[in-house]
Amino acid sequence: MGNNEMNILWISYRVPYDSVAHAGGQIHNFYLKSLVRHRDVQLKLITQSAEGLPKELDLAAYGIDYDLFYRKKGAADIFWKLCNLETRCNPWNRYAGFAYNSETVPIIGRLRKLAGSGWKPDVILLHWTQTVLLTDMAKRLFPRAKLIAIEEDVSFQAVERKAEKASPGFQRRWLQRRAKQLKAMELDALRKAALIVTNNPKDVRLLQKQQIAVPFFTWAPYFHDMTGISRHQQNNDILFYGAMQRRENSESVLWLIRNVLPLLEDLDVHLTVIGKNPPSCLTEIADERVTLTGYVKDIEPYFEKAMCFAAPLVLGAGIKVKVLEALSAGIPVLTNRVGIEGIPARDGIEYFHCETKEEYAQCIRDIYTGKRRLRPEQPKGFIRQNYCCEKDAEAFYEQLTKLV
Prior knowledge:
- With about 400 residues, the protein is α/β, with parallel strands linked by helices.
- Helix content is about 40%, strand content about 15%.
- The chain has two domains: about 5-220 and about 390-404, Glycogen Phosphorylase B (Rossmann fold, 3-Layer(aba) Sandwich), CATH 3.40.50; about 235-385, Rossmann fold (3-Layer(aba) Sandwich), CATH 3.40.50.
- Helix 1 (about 25-35) crosses helix 16 and helix 6 (about 155-165) packs antiparallel against helix 7 (about 170-190).
């Protein structure tokens, strides 16, 4: 190994590959593969898959040295499910019930094995809060390595929001307890990092208010850039787009169906929901005014032709990649405080801000009648000016070289 090479260990909560569907996986995949393009980088990846071995796995094709754990069917899967009961039920769980035993134990085992081999990383990247919580273990095994925490979201904020939305009583108190525990653990781990990576400046400000004095690096989250498409509205569709097995997405669609569509019964509008694995609570109520497409390989025609994009997000934390993608398409975007947080777009210029069902309904009505208009070049220009992943990938590489 040459004197100028960097040994990098990347530990991630989910395996990356080019066709990965979820936003965090796409960010991970892009920046990981951008990094290994540099000849002085020697990278090892420890990662896992909750859904089994992905048939799309392509890490070897990129020359990435990886160790992948995935749960297999049968006795092993039953074993891990039993282990996860402790994660869910133990009020004193070591990771506040946020990181499952089936995910942390295999990673720790692989870290110990790697440490025993004598290989020494210069930098360790802990990607997603579930692995950031393993900071103390990583420091014990590799005391000389610089630790970088990649916070896809500030996770304690997401759990706090779940607690706010939960029914009063035991469920809310339980989530409030979990949020308090997770906040203490997450902040403690972040204070031990040499660098914290975020997807947006809002999370930087949030963590700095918690007296986190560690240096920050903010990169543009990878997203499907649709600035090249040409908008030709051909229908009165209201779009929603996202992985529908995620509660933050399915509950947002339910809110639209139950609260907004009834206020638009006199208009010829239609809700189209793009995303795989819609839950039964949606499939059972879909009717002639609601279409669930399931997985769609090419989403661009929908964004070219639809009337608007509505994202009344009720859960989650951090930047919402679906909102960035919609803005890049130049389609009128309607979203709320949760949907736009971390994105410095201007209300009425790059998007339309709505909070209540009445505001969403009135905004859709105004777009339908032509009372409100949004020039596609405004949101497209905003995206071009503020989000360049290629540029940020090179800046991140430079940041690593300075650390080492």
